[in-house]
UniProtKB/TrEMBL annotation:
PANTHER family: F-BOX DOMAIN-CONTAINING PROTEIN, OS07G0645701 PROTEIN. It holds the Pfam family LRR_At1g61320_AtMIF1. InterPro entries: F-box-like_dom_sf (IPR036047), LRR_At1g61320_AtMIF1 (IPR055357), LRR_dom_sf (IPR032675). Residues 173-437 form the At1g61320/AtMIF1 LRR domain. This is At1g61320/AtMIF1 LRR domain-containing protein. It comes from Urochloa decumbens. It comes from the Eukaryota.
Length: 481
């Protein structure tokens, strides 16, 4: 070892001394940014680090951190079992021992309830909650089966496992603030009792591929619930009727198969954000947005994503009074051949809108896929009101993702600029094609100069001139490629 000429201290010792002088709060902040396996390994670095992982107040114990590094698309059962065995040991080391430095303020726990692990993890959680070690639990009960591969029997079995876990360890309900469930059929369970009466502290609920059997209507009437976020992913319900969720602020539903409106609201005084994402099939007749937003009073953000298929919104106009407090509107996945002027109907119904966000969908690689379900893309037939005078007096930003200087896009942007007298920014963004589109040779890889997105000052100046010709607007035109 090379010694320091001044004090005889080698570089390794000096580095260790530098770590030693850091206070616990800084070292814990470092540990809080790595996964739990890395955090535990640091205890062998030195005596100074030995006790630190067990002082962490917020923990993330994720079973996927214990899986082999290189994972195939389908995780093998033996790897899941090995990962859960390792997770059980880590969980025991943090939950089974008394903590002298205070309780765990938040535990993010992601597990597979396979084999008998429900009956090993359950007692650890239950005891930690009962003696006050654990105050706040974010629990995800994972399932690696693909949605398309799940059978009804498997979804019923998963429901039985989850129900058995909660029935055996009811203490888990007491501090459960976030719950994520996958591939479950609630046909034989009282879902409202489980999620809203037992989970009294639940704030965030995520359900993926969960249903009630036979596409039944799910009615939620939970006046005492604290639920503020509800996220549904491919949940094949007949409809969702939110009768009463007074704390609900954000609702997101990705993919439904309802022929008409997938949801309705009654008492939701706190609802501020709605996100609806769906590629409508030919059986989807669509619905009017006002039908869904009826009885909502405080929505300020709406995102609608059509994923490149036909619109599932039916034309309407003056009925859209629920948009009168809207601050941000995002319309994504609009098929590239669609006229954009129909969106002005929504724009004119939202006089306080500040941000308008449009995404153009262009994926030739997918146009011929699933033709039996998605073969019709009729151009929107909304009656667009004629421009009379500026109506969006608060609008500050217009964003177009997937911009190309096509006539219909130019006409749309000019129409927005006319309606928004204080519009500050028009952001025109390039949208990278996917790998399959590039392989087809239809889209040249960026940054090729053959793509239609304006490149260089000359092309961009030409677009700016087209947009501002005859239009009085202070808006800056910004190109983002």
């Amino acid at each position: 070892m090379e010694l320091d000429n001044n004090n005889g201290i080698g570089p390794e010792v000096e580095d260790e001394d530098r770590l030693s002088i850091l206070v616990d709060d800084i070292l814990l902040s470092i540990l809080g940014r790595v996964d739990i396996t890395t955090a535990v390994r640091t205890c062998v670095l030195s005596v100074r680090w030995k006790h630190l992982p067990w002082l962490l107040r917020e923990l993330t114990i994720d079973v996927k951190d214990f899986l082999p590094v290189l994972q195939p698309n389908l995780i093998e059962a033996e790897h899941m079992d090995e990962a859960m065995s390792s997770l059980r040991k880590v969980a025991r080391s943090f939950l089974a021992n008394p903590r002298s430095e205070g309780a765990i303020t938040k535990l993010h726990l992601k597990v597979y309830l396979i084999n008998n692990y429900a009956y090993e993890i359950g007692p650890l959680l239950s005891e930690a909650i009962d003696i006050g070690i654990l105050k706040d639990l974010d629990l995800a009960i994972l399932d690696e089966k693909e949605i398309s591969d799940c059978t009804d029997e498997q979804m019923l079995q998963q429901a039985s496992v989850v129900n058995g876990f909660f029935s055996a360890y009811p203490s888990v309900f007491h501090c459960l603030t976030r719950l994520s469930l996958y591939n479950i059929c609630f046909a034989e369970l009282d879902i409202n009792h489980l999620l809203f009466e037992c989970c009294k502290q639940l704030h965030h609920l995520y359900l993926s591929n969960c249903d009630l059997d036979d596409r039944s209507v799910w009615k939620i009437d939970a006046p005492d619930s604290k639920l503020s976020v509800l996220q549904l992913n491919v949940c094949l319900l007949g409809r969702l009727d939110v009768l009463c969720l007074p704390k609900l602020q954000h609702l997101e539903w990705d993919t439904w198969l309802c022929a008409r409106a997938p949801l309705s609201f009654s008492v939701v005084p706190s609802l501020k954000e709605i996100c609806l994402i769906c590629a409508a099939s030919n059986t989807n007749r669509g619905f009017v947005l006002s039908e869904v937003l009826n009885d909502t009073t405080s929505i300020h953000t709406i995102k609608l994503d059509f994923q490149g298929e036909k619109l599932w919104l039916q034309p309407e106009g003056k009925q859209l009074t629920a948009l009168n407090k809207l601050r941000k509107l995002s319309l994504h996945g609009i098929f590239v051949e669609f006229n954009l002027l129909w969106t002005l109907v929504l724009l004119d119904a939202a006089p306080f809108l500040e941000i308008f966000d449009i995404e153009i969908w262009e994926h030739p690689c997918q146009i011929n896929d699933s033709m039996e379900m998605y073969e019709e893309r009729p151009n929107p037939s909304w009656k667009v009101p004629k421009f009379a005078s500026p109506s969006n007096l608060y609008m500050k930003e217009l964003q177009i993702i997937g911009f190309k200087p096509l006539e219909q896009q130019i006409e749309f942007i000019r129409s927005v600029m006319q309606r928004a007298p204080i519009l500050n920014t028009v952001l025109l963004k390039y949208d990278d094609p996917c790998e399959d589109c590039e392989k087809m040779g239809i889209f040249p890889p960026r940054p090729s100069r053959n793509c239609m997105f304006p490149k260089g000052e000359d092309e961009q100046d030409m677009v700016v001139n087209l947009l501002k010709d005859g239009v009085s607007s202070p808006a800056r035109i910004i190109f983002d490629d």
